[in-house]
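Complex record, two chains
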Amino acid sequence: METKDIPPATQPLDGVLASNTAEPLPTPGAKGMFLRPKYLILTLVLMVIFILAIVILILRSKSAETGPATIILPTPTSVRKLSPVATLSSYLRLEATVSAISEILTNVSGQEQILLPPTVELSLDL
Amino acid sequence: MRKISCLFLLLLLLIVLAPRQLVFASSIQAYQDYLYQNDLYRQTLSGFETARNEYRKYQSLASQADVLAKAKIFLEQRVNLLYTYLLFLNEKISENKGLSAAEKLKLEQYLRNEIVYLVNHRNAIQAINSLQEVSPVSQPFEKHYQTLSAVMHLVAFNIQIGQLNDVAQLFTDALQQIQSLVGENRSAFTPEKLEQFDRWLVSIAEKQKLYQQLVTQIQDKINLLNLAKPLDAEDQIKQNQKKLLQAQVPLKDANNYFKELINALKTVD
């Protein structure tokens, strides 16, 4: 086999060894590997989705307080004539309240039966 | 890192998929438990009655052992049924928007006392070792049952009053809204229409006043009830139950007037 001349090292071997021992290469799972770019991006994406989900939930709960957002009622001509925005919203709120009152009143009548205490057999007659 | 990602995903799923009716689930769950215990109670009662008939017929040691076992199961189930009913009432009190904090506290205290009594009674049942011990353990409960029954009726009645108070509050708010709506836009209506609206508003206010008077009368009577005389108290509650039904009539009428008024608002040219 042919042997080639090895070019001389640009720095002494001792110096190379010394620099290697001072900064060892990172190994997978070591502390320095915590924020790998792909994991960092994944974490950020998940955090954004998480925050969005919370915002959606807050909005949903707010809409639940004010009644369903999908109520479609015929726009009363008189109300439209009076005040296009404020009066219509007042009207819708009133309709929702009256429906809620009817519903609760119906429930109260049903509750009477549900709340009726049980009757139990007292005498053992042994 | 993967664990953190999984944790995020899990939290996300939990938030998005969490049922929105969770707040109201507790009394529904408690009611389902009560119904289940009621079924079990019927079964154990039937089992006990069969065993008792067998014992009366044969008077054998085997039938005696059987009736003792069935009596203990029945007595325990009787306690379980009442216990789950009291828990159901407790949940209903917590969810009730029409009862004040002081009223809730008072009713919860009544329930707590009865729950403690039932727990002690259950411990006594579990300690029964012979057929002769069954009746002496059951008798104090039979005497106490009048008080327990009066408490159950009283709490259930107050829950209904609370629900009606909640409706009345909604109603007051709605009346104010519609009064201001009509008031702010008087210039837009014809005098005939305004007269019609005013008549509806007066009728609604009168019905609401009548309802309030009836409920106040009922509440005053209920507040004077003496649970030391449980039978009288229970009779009073049953009488007032009928009055409470009558009190709902003006509120229902007023709500119908409300609908009419809103329709009148809709049909103005």
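Note: Helices of chain A lie at 13-22, 37-65, 77-82, 86-115.
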